[in-house]
Amino acid sequence: MTGKPVDQGGINGRTEATGRGLFYVLREVCAQPDTMTQLRLPLGLEGKRIVVQGFGKVGYWVARFCHEAGARIVGIAEHDGAIVDGGGLDPDAVKRHQDATGTILDLPATSNLPRSLDALELDCDVLIPAALEHQITEENAPRVKARIVLEGANGPTTPEADAILEEKGVLVIPDIYANAGGVIVSYFEWLKNLSHVRFGRLEKRYQESAHARMLSTIETATGAQLAPEQRASVIRGADELTVVNSGLEEILVVAYHEIATPCAGSRTCGRYGSPLWPTPSRRWPGRICRSGCSPRVQLSGLASSFGALVVRRRVGGRRGLAIILGPQVDVLRGRNKGHERQVLEHRRDRAAERVE
Asked: Strand, coil or helix: what is 187?
């Protein structure tokens, strides 16, 4: 079981992990010159106009981190309506108002919208649906003005709306990747419980000692002395939260560059997103591959990054995802590699049969 309190075997950083992961993903996407040029947006996250639907455990944190990075939160939606401020909302101020009144509405110096869905049609650069599934539909997708849709909720975009957004040239960052932060940090918690040692315990003091020696050498050579608070900041070793956030960022950034790689043609083009993705995958704006087709999200790369085999399936017209093999990959490593390959091939074949 993961998501436990820290004093009962949990891990620091789990509460905000999904929102922080969304922030890391968006920041990395906005740092890609080719993608931003194609979307006709300036490089970087700073100054981006963002609308967030949902202001709970996911929406609040992603809004806060984006605000701290210089983005403008121009709209926030909840179940009873939405608030708008073109100059930018302070998520912490909104949170204090919500805690005091029970609603985000009627915050001073903001405008109210009567419906949560109205916020999805606001003029913005980035739309983050982080509440419920099926919020962007065939009916309202044509009116979505955002250039980037970052899926914080599970399945917030219907298949019909996805096709409309693709036709409009909107970059939809899929939920299976974008909101994986919580699952990743839960995996870290599982690893911590297996080792019975919190992250950072073994190396923190050594790092601080090494940093202090290096800083002392620099001070001796230059004759300059840092203030005590500056010195403490420089020599500080990595604690559990620092290690967790670093690992989360590394996994999501590396996975982005793997899944955003243009396809290589042949079987990975047309109706195949990748050999492990038998049904059509959504387009990923970027360069044109050598076979002339649009780049596709390569979920095989994502699966290898997360140590999982992921297969999409559609049941009754609804989009779904089947996680075929998760942390068991780590358990299999170190055993007979032929056995591991047989297990992977067997589960992949069974998954493909279910999809077909």
From this structure: helix
pLDDT of residue 45: 96
Task: Check residue 350 and give its pLDDT.
Answer: 63
What is the pLDDT at residue 349?
66
| Contact between 72 and 88 (Cβ < 8 Å) | yes
Helix (H, G, I), strand (E, B) or coil at 166: helix
The ranges of the chain with pLDDT < 50 are 263-337, 340
Handedness of CA 192, 198, 200, 202 (dihedral sign): negative
pLDDT value at position 1? 83
- In the chain, what are the domains? 6-181 (3.40.50.720), 185-238 (no CATH), 260-355 (no CATH)
* Of 147, 171, 76, 175, residue with least CA distance to 118: 76
Q: What is the CA radius of gyration of the chain?
A: 22
Q: How far apart are CA 336 and CA 185, in angstroms?
A: 28
Closest CA to 8 of 189, 181, 183: 189
- In this prediction, residue 202 carries a pLDDT of 87
pLDDT at res. 123: 96
Residue 157 is classified by DSSP as B
In sequence order, which residues have a C-beta less than 8 Å from that of residue 159 and are 6 or more positions away? 314, 317, 319
Q: Rounded to 10 degrees, what is the CA torsion of 50, 131, 322, 253?
A: 30
- pLDDT for res 347: 60
Quote the CA–CA distance of 152 and 172 in Å, as a whole number: 11
> What pLDDT does 342 receive?
57
Tokens of 209: 């000692």
Kindly report the pTM of this predicted structure: 0.75
Q: Tokens 């900041």, residue?
A: 233
On whether the CB atoms of residues 158 and 137 are closer than 8 A, the answer is yes
Could you tell me the maximum CA-CA distance found in the chain, to the nearest angstrom? 72
